[in-house]
Write a structure and sequence with these properties.
This protein is α+β, with helices and mostly antiparallel strands and 124 residues long. The chain has helices at residues 20-25, 30-46, 57-64; strands at residues 4-8, 13-19, 72-80, 83-92, 95-98, 101-102, 107-111, 117-121. The chain has a five-stranded antiparallel β-sheet with strand order 1-2-3-4-5. Strand 1 and strand 2 form a beta hairpin. It is globular and about 40 Å long.
Amino acid sequence: MKFEIRDNDFVDSFALIIPVQEFVKAKDDPREFKSLCIAVDGFLDAFDANDRDEFDEQEYDAIYSWLGKSGNIFFVLLEDRGIVWHEIYIVANSDTRHIRYMDSEGYVNTHINSKFFIKRKRDK
């Protein structure tokens, strides 16, 4: 699994950047998936992201469903008043997608205008 951790000028923070071609390798290869999990979890743990459970297949599938043939996946760290959280973006050409997904407990992983990451129960 090839990835890059880089200072992100756009939000003045760090980002884990994974090329789409590398990310899709984890779909059918358990060793690549384990490597991806270690990279994502290690990156977020290193910066004390407060919003995390471990990276899992559900989060992987949510990202995978939006992928094109090229581009990069960005796990971007954000911070406000001592709270650190992450957001996920797919950037391909001039298109940027902010990824939101529902976990197994019915929570939608998103962010709100105040920029605090929340888990909000899906409206029934």
